[in-house]
Amino acid sequence: MRDTLRWAYALNQWNIRMDVFVRHEDQRRALKTLSALGFGHIELAAGTGRWDNLGRPEVIEINHGSPEGFLAFLRSCSVNGVSSMFWDPGQPVEEEGWAFRSTRNRDDHAAIVESAKPFVDFLAAIGAEQLVARPVGSAWMQPPLGRDDIAAIGEVWNSVGKVAAAAGVGLALHYDCLSAVHTADELRRLLDATDPELVGLALDTAELTIGGIDPVAFYEERHERVTHVHLKDTRYADTGEEYRMPGAETTMLRGGAGRRIERWFFELGTEGGLVDVKAFVAALRRHGYPGWVVVESDHGGNPAELAMLNSWYLQQELSVART
Amino acid sequence: MTADQLAQRSETPERRIKWSYMDHWRSNGPAGPVDQWHSHRTMSSFLKQIKAVGFDAIDTFDFRLWQMYGDYGGPAKYQEMVQDHGLERIVNIFHAADYDLRNYAPHVPETHENILEDFRVTMGHWSSVELDNIIVMPATLYYDMEPVTEDKLKISAELWNKVGEITAGYGVKLTCHHEFFCGIQSEPDIEVFYSYTDPRYVSLFIDTAQHCIASVDPVALYRRHAHRVSGFHFKDTRNVAAGDDHRHRPDSEIMAPTTGKWFYEMGTPHGLVDFEAMMTAVRDNDYRGWISVEHDKANKDGGDYAESTAIARWYAVNVLEKIYR
């Protein structure tokens, strides 16, 4: 994309389970699709195991020899590089003994910082700018945040941010609609608990909207903290406490929240979309937002089709030049 | 034109080639697999995807005419929708006739008046839009024409000369597209056929995959007839027809016993078409105009039209446009 904003695309929608997005030719097809649509950078997502061969630095290196080899793989598809990588330290991984860690537990902090290091080093080696992290686990899996919890969460992210900054990588905390940090006030408190020099906010327009937070208004309020953006739309908002449903990942996001919602996330320009995409992007431009804007399909439908519809919207409705 | 636009124009060499997409399509929605003509919404989604990936225009089948009238108000109104999505226009229409031996067989003179009347009516229907080509398969199914004799080829050529004169009256070229299962598909028969046609009225439309399947080198064929080639379908194949693959009713693309899926997008691994040689030949002959991309039945065997279309466009940008654009 040729624009004052920098546009990237998240690969997560292609990787719907461990054995469907493994073959390099399948990955090349996704990369070529994005390249043809004008996206020169991609966002990766952390994973686990040998099948998830874009999900961990050591597995990527086994597949491509080195960070440079991985970049060469991307460039063979005319994708120039990686903008960012999403990582959830609360997601147990085989490589770390399926350890279950929580950022609100200070006893886990040292291990979380340690587990961030390979990702930071890898991102630095490939010239990526942001480690995009889930700051805290899902609300339904834990008691409500107490007075000291957000302070504890802020501490570990300051520590990770320090490691990342030393490597020249940014750290952006990603709000999601199931998170224990759920309300706008809780999000503000989390930002206030972190060092602005070390920790930014990854603002996801659809996740905030589902969570009941207006992304345009929140960006206007805290634009100086926003260092990463996920741009996508939704047609639905949480009607109240759906994010607290037991097993909300399955019962709410995939199971329809008891309202037969078949799909929460939609392409830009979708009919009935709740995100004011044009206003949000105008706000990014007005504030001279310097980071990546990562467009996501995120379990919405056919990945190639949604990427094409998103690109059309960028080109035709937001006046972004494809090449 | 602003100073910026002038500067941009001076930086961007004039394009000699524009890219159109022949509108085969399937997608999955709440109603299951549908094509783009299912609803206005699915049509809009299709057009957005074609534009997003960098195509300039579309081709379509002329049998969509009645749907265009019913759903959009006619070809001109449908073309307005195409243009509303950022595409230029409809460039070519494909005239997919049934080729019933009783009333529509180019090698059977008794059917010619019916065919000529079909084109008089068809061209009138489409006169509200600017077209470059009306594309035809110039013969019946192979087994309805065999044995293919010089006399049959001559009779067919004489028909298409007359049809071409009709279409030329509307400013549209009559151009022939040689499916591997049609009566005029081998290299010798193609050569004899064109020797009897009038270059003013009958053009050749090169389908890279169809010729490869029929064991005809599309690059050599193009180089021999470049002066009368009026367009291309750029698509790939991994298979050459064997045995009686070309003799199956209703359509060997679907029914040939050896191969379930004939067509692939440009850039497919193990493709038989030498697209770089093809584009070099296009450049050498200073061809200017439209190249159409096609990959009909791309959804077979787990394929996906959206992805195939994006990858074909990637190949055009990253390989072919480096040779000629």
From TrEMBL, chain A:
It comes from Microbispora siamensis. Gene3D superfamilies: Divalent-metal-dependent TIM barrel enzymes. Pfam families: AP_endonuc_2. This is Xylose isomerase-like TIM barrel domain-containing protein. Coiled coil: none annotated. It comes from the Bacteria. Residues 34-304 form the Xylose isomerase-like TIM barrel domain.
Automatic annotation (TrEMBL), chain B:
Residues 48-307 form the Xylose isomerase-like TIM barrel domain. Transmembrane segments: none annotated. It comes from the Bacteria. InterPro entries: IolE/XylAMocC-like, Xyl_isomerase-like_sf, Xyl_isomerase-like_TIM-brl. This is Xylose isomerase-like TIM barrel domain-containing protein.
